[in-house]
Amino acid sequence: MYFIFDVETVPDFEFVRNVIENPEEDDDDLLIQASEELARNSSGFLPPMYHRMVSWVGLWIENTGSPKQKVSWHGTDEKEGLEKIFNALGTYKDFGLIHHNGRGFDLPLLTYRAMKHGLQMPHRLNHYDIRYRYSNDNVDLLDEFSNYGASSWPKLKHLGYLIDIPFKQTGEGNEVLAMFRRDELPEIEHYCYEDVMATYVVWLHLKYTVGDINKELFDNLNERAMGKLEEIQESAP
């Protein structure tokens, strides 16, 4: 079994204030300050340590690629959300992971936040099959398409454009904080679900392109996945 997942976050302003000397009082000014002092990228997006989780969505799929079950959570009680995703991951013993930049953000975030809340993660997440960068059991689309950093990292939305599929109709990642401030938590989960289905669609195209699945199976799974993606987009709040 594979678990395709995505996590949505907002900055942990309380923690950031503890880290920065002479922090700004206003949250927006603090975010600018933190971006300048703590971010390691040109976008100013904070590293995973400085975020807290507000939603996640996971899709269990069989080794053949067939979808099996969706699980999800949204809320302000981060500890509850962590417990739920860890419980979900306990459903199967030897699961694999599929994600877009999960190695760089989502998985480190889960580790940081579990440590903050005194929680124990599923042992599988620390297993060699998952930790090993070139593992077939932990598939990061950034690594797959960039040849493990030899080439540039593609955005998920741009991969969608490449295969003529419109992604990110619900909202962009930088809009999550604004949605959270408007108490639009169900909408954030909806956006997260679209991300997961987009990841699934791109993964299917990749598996077909490299010859891991035949055309008949690809056509069947892709048709079903595209139907679900369109349903998600049309039902956006």
From TrEMBL:
The Predicted 3'-5' exonuclease PolB-like domain, residue ranges: 44-229
Name listed for the protein in its UniProt record: Ribonuclease H-like domain-containing protein
SUPFAM superfamilies listed in its UniProt record: Ribonuclease H-like
Gene3D superfamilies registered for this protein in UniProt: Ribonuclease H-like superfamily/Ribonuclease H
Tree of life domain: Bacteria
Organism: Fodinibius salsisoli
Listed InterPro entries: 3'-5'_exonuclease_PolB-like (IPR019288), RNaseH-like_sf (IPR012337), RNaseH_sf (IPR036397)
